[in-house]
Amino acid sequence: MDVEREQPEEEIDEAFDRLVDEGEDRLTRPLHALVPTGLLGGIDIGVGILAYLVVKDETGSQLLAALAFSIGFVALLLARSELFTENFLVPVTARAAGKGTWGSLARLWVVTLVTNLAGGALTVWIILTARPDLREVARTTGEHYAGLGVSLRSFLLAVLAGLVITLMTRMQHGTDSVGVRVVPAVLFGAVLVGAELFHCVLDGILMVGAMVAGADIPVATFLGSIAWAALGNVVGGIGLVTFLRLVRTAPKVEAEREQSTA
Description:
This protein has helices spanning 2-27, 31-59, 62-69, 71-79, 89-96, 102-130, 135-146, 152-172, 178-194, 200-212, 219-248, 250-261. 47% of the residues are buried. It has a single domain, classed as Up-down Bundle (Glycerol uptake facilitator protein). By secondary structure, the chain is mainly alpha-helical.
């Protein structure tokens, strides 16, 4: 019975150590490495959007298209690129443990968000230039997210998106097996898109696609939607998952902080 109780604690400690080690690496990563990693993250999401648009155009099914999109999250995992919302659990845990600085965390967030959007925007422009037959589905999809506006409903959709991605990150860091890590990438990617949650990077790229396809989305609406979604993503990812995780591992967090300041 004691062994059964100790084993989960050991697994939690191992997962915590992985989070801190990887988080410290992200917080101290130089700009010349951070920028291409973020750009590649946007490109990976763009590949997922290509799969989504093709399946949605061919079948009209949101659920099948959402499942197809998951290839983007699998690419993020296997290529070791990064998505803005993946940087809630890992570097925040490291910072709480005394690694890095708040400035380095802010730099990580800003650079990753901007480069994700830039890489994804370039990819979606290439997609819709090479496949103009996908422009109509791209336009209607992007207009949907632009039309959410600033409201309680859109904020809660963003909170759910942040929760979903951070929970995916938490599950992936609970194991060293790449094969097992692929499972939450597929499942949570499908949930994110299938439920039409409000994700600042994904839906920002989709709005760019809509504009490329001829939609009239004002720049102020575009930027406001991204900012509003990002805020909700932070609340969902940090407030509903990361914070509770830190509470669960409070003794480990305190021990790491003391060791870092010693």
